[in-house]
Specification:
The protein has ten helices and twelve strands. It is of the alpha+beta class. It has an eight-stranded antiparallel β-sheet with strand order 5-6-10-9-11-2-1-12, with helices on one face. Strands 3-4 form a two-stranded antiparallel sheet. The chain has a two-stranded parallel sheet with strand order 7-8. Pfam families: Pro_isomerase (PF00160), TPR_1 (PF00515).
Length: 393
């Protein structure tokens, strides 16, 4: 028995690539639907219209997005135009089964090529791939949707023909995009490329890091991960720690962008799974200690990519926590001081360096920093005095 085929959809938002979604197709249970979707991703089918253009999802837009439900695209008749938010989008679509005679009857501009339902199963899980028909049975063409939550109200009404196996965070990024009251995205969300997938093609990702370095096998969003039960605080702590350590390995390779993504991901797991003290006091303490380290790491990596305001923000988050060890407070003050110095806010830099010294008085480096900034401040004052004297001379 041959393995089910896989295809990919590369997604962009406002012309900026966000990553790749890889779907495994259910050839055995939905052969006709799978063949249609496969070839529209491959782009090797021709339109029955006179222009004989390729039928493809490339350039097509996601025209409907409903949080905690699904994201929908595939109107390759109207949804590939510049204004895919127009009222026509969602009314068209064209399958590989359309023929010239049928198209003439239906109306050339809508195409369709409708085909019958297959595998009318239950939508029990997120990331299920389903066909979006035209509102009645056996009216499938090219429109499809990806669920982002269980959708039992769709059971028995739409063909299930695949599932997302990679790029779940990309689906979530689309799901969390701003939409109007009708679910139409305010941003332009498009399939900028698509095709047949195998492991050699990889899974590019631009808004997160899927690098498995350090053993990070966890999904970007904690709710999507199936490696442990949500009430297993020990396993959750292990996951958050592995993700954090993965970021540190990337940081040591000077891959600051992906290190940031890992630290942010670790923080998401910490925030999701930290138990209340009265539920598990020991794990609460361990999660909180890990959170302090992640805040410090985020402050450092953001400093390295010259995002000084964000670096200050995360250092401040740490300093606002309770029971922070003096050494960690010293690091936060030092990193905040460095960011203020880069922003040429010398008074704030000096204040933070002095606070750092209060928490770590034996550190000779901080003494040098204080002296350096004090000299800069004095030079600035001297320059100001000279400029004033010139004005009155």
């Amino acid at each position: 028995m041959t393995e089910d085929p896989a295809v990919y959809l590369d997604i962009s938002i406002d012309n900026k690539p966000i990553g790749r979604v890889v779907c495994r197709l259910f050839r055995e249970s939905a052969p006709k639907t799978t063949e249609n979707f496969y070839r529209l991703c491959a782009g090797d089918a021709k339109s029955p219209l006179k222009d004989q253009q390729s039928l493809s999802y490339k350039g097509n837009g996601f025209h409907r997005v409903v949080k905690n439900f699904m994201i929908q695209a595939g109107d390759i008749v109207f949804g590939t135009k510049d204004d895919y938010s127009s009222s026509s989008v969602g009314k068209g679509g064209c399958s590989i089964y359309a023929d010239e005679e049928e198209v003439k009857v239906n109306n050339l501009s809508f195409c369709h090529g409708n085909f019958e339902d297959e595998n009318l199963g239950e939508f029990l899980e997120p990331f299920t791939l389903g066909m979006a028909n035209l509102g009645s049975p056996n009216t499938n063409n090219s429109q499809f949707f990806i669920t982002t939550y269980a959708a039992p109200h769709l059971n028995g009404k739409h063909s299930i023909f695949g599932k997302v196996i990679h790029g779940k965070s990309v689906v979530r990024a689309v799901e969390h995009s701003k939409v109007d009251s009708d679910g139409v995205p305010e941003s332009e969300i498009r399939i900028c490329d698509c095709g047949v997938w195998d492991k050699s093609k990889g899974v590019p990702l631009y808004t997160a890091s899927n690098d498995p370095i350090g053993g990070d096998v966890y999904e970007e969003y904690p709710d999507d991960d199936m490696h442990f039960n949500e009430d297993d605080f020990s396993k959750a702590l292990e996951a958050a720690t592995i993700i954090k350590d993965s970021g540190t390995l990337l940081f040591k390779k000077n891959d600051y962008s992906n290190a940031f993504f890992k630290y942010r991901k670790s923080l998401n797991y910490i925030n999701e799974y930290t138990p209340e003290p009265d539920v598990d006091k020991e794990r609460n303490y361990q999660f909180t200690s890990l959170k302090m380290k992640v805040y410090l790491n985020l402050s450092l990596v953001l400093f390295n990519v010259e995002k000084y305001d964000d670096s200050i923000t995360y250092a401040t988050y740490l300093l606002e926590m309770d029971n922070v060890p003096d050494k960690d407070q010293a690091k936060a003050y030092y990193r905040r001081g460095n960011s203020y110095l880069k922003k040429k806010r010398l008074d704030e830099a000096l204040q933070n360096y002095k606070l750092c010294k209060d928490k770590n008085p034996d550190d000779k480096v901080i003494g040098q920093k204080i002296e350096y900034v004090e000299n800069l401040i004095e030079e600035k004052k001297e320059k100001t005095r000279k400029n004033i004297s010139k004005f009155f001379s």
